[in-house]
Amino acid sequence: MEWLVPVLIVVGVILLVGIYLWATYNSLVQLKVRVDEAWSGITVQLKRRADLIPNLIETVKGYASHEKAVFESVTRARAETLAADGPGAAGVAEGHLQQALRSLFAVAEAYPQLQASQNFLQVQQALVDTEDKVQAARRFYNGGVRELNTKIKVFPNNLFARGLGFTEREFFEVADAGAISEPPRVQF
């Protein structure tokens, strides 16, 4: 009968550790899925914005067809954004695209007829709306990454999280923060 108490203590400890591992594993899976979902939201908004850019270029081309270098720069930046395969590459592409759009809007400011064009105004407003959605999706994604990374790093999770296949995720940060400090604007 004396051996029963230590056995029950060992079984209780094993049971508690098992329940802790089970609960922690499930919460890590939930966080990973949330981060994956948030990244998907970002890619949807980046694609939506990329789909608007050709319309913007064509509208501006009608008024400023001699600005070929600006159009090529925006087109290259758009292609880079679409080809980005992760947060790091997307962050670099974001900075390039913002700089290219600033150049495009600077060209547009020189043409009052363009600024009065209904098509230009609609595309520009859709682009601003999409920029807001990209920023919201970025905040949601980075919040999820912060939670997941924290959960992976804290003790005692850090002892087994990597062994279970959980790795820290990369934040979606723009390489040139000044490029996105304020959205591209057109002054009317």
What does this protein structure show overall?
- This protein is mainly alpha-helical and 188 residues long.
- The protein has one domain: LemA-like domain (de novo design (two linked rop proteins), Up-down Bundle).
- It is built from 5 helices and no strands.
- It has helices at residues 4-61, 68-83, 87-109, 112-116, 118-153.
- It is rod-shaped.
Gist of the model:
With 188 residues, the protein is mainly alpha-helical. It is built from five helices and no strands. The longest helix is centred in the first third of the chain and has 58 residues, at 4-61.
- Give the overall shape: rod-shaped
> What would the average pLDDT be, to the nearest integer?
86
- Tell me the radius of gyration: 25 Å
Low-confidence stretches: 183-188
CATH architecture: Up-down Bundle
Secondary structure category: mainly alpha
The figure for the number of domains is 1
Helix proportion range: over 70%
- Count of beta strands: 0
Stated plainly, the CATH topology is called: de novo design (two linked rop proteins)
The top level CATH class name: Mainly Alpha
How far apart lie the N and C ends?
Answer: 89 Å
* Main sheet makeup: none
At the fourth CATH level, what is the homologous superfamily? LemA-like domain
Beta-strand residue fraction: under 5%
What is the H/E order? HHHHH
Separate helix tally: 5
Main attributes?
mainly alpha; rod-shaped; single chain; 188 residues; 0% strand; de novo design (two linked rop proteins)
Topology:
Layout lengths: L3 H58 L6 H16 L3 H23 L2 H5 L1 H36 L35
Helix pairs in contact: 1-2, 1-5, 2-3
